[in-house]
Amino acid sequence: MSAEDPLLPQHPRVKNVTRDTPHEAGDRVLSTRDHSVIKEWARLLSAEPATGEASGSGPATSLTVTDGGTGLRFNFPGIARFREIPWEEWLDHFNRYDLTFVFETAGAGSPPSARYRIVPTQELR
């Protein structure tokens, strides 16, 4: 999948996984609501939970954010553009607004992919 390819296809039927769901090597794009899967993905990429929105823990960033209104994102090493927030706040928002984490898996022998989207769960039905 190249950088120009959308992470979600026109008909977003992506396999939903949990920490207990085996996935096959051919599964390039997966979705999850499982907090442990999201945290493991972030750990592998040294990504930190962040937001561009104002919340109880701080102000909005001055960046224009085009994320479909979810308000959640990640900061990656060397690219900390958004306001870091604790996992508890990130996951509370994720659950409260019924969001799903969609991510690209690594190919065999490849490093983990940093491509992801956070979308309303209803968009995947």
Task: Give structural notes.
It is a single chain. This protein is an alpha+beta fold and 125 residues long. The protein has one domain (15-124). 17% of the residues lie in helices and 22% in strands. It contains 2 helices and 7 strands. The chain has helices at residues 35-45, 87-96, and strands at residues 15-16, 29-32, 48-51, 72-75, 83-84, 99-104, 116-120. Strands 1-2-6-7 form a 4-stranded mixed beta sheet, covered by helices on one side. It has a 3-stranded antiparallel beta sheet with strand order 4-3-5.
Shape: globular
Question: Gyration radius, to the nearest Å?
Answer: 14 Å
- What fraction of residues sit in β-strands? 15-25%
The beta-strand count equals 7
The number of helical elements comes to 2
Q: Tell me the count of domains.
A: 1
- Note the gap between the termini: 23 Å
Main β-sheet description: 4 strands, mixed
Q: What does the average pLDDT come to?
A: 81
Helical coverage, percent range: 10-25%
Low-pLDDT residue intervals, each spanning 5 or more residues? none
Question: Order of strands in the sheet with the most strands?
Answer: 1-2-6-7
- Summing up helix and strand content along with how strands pair, one would put the structural category as alpha+beta
Give the helices and strands as they follow along the chain: EEHEEEHEE
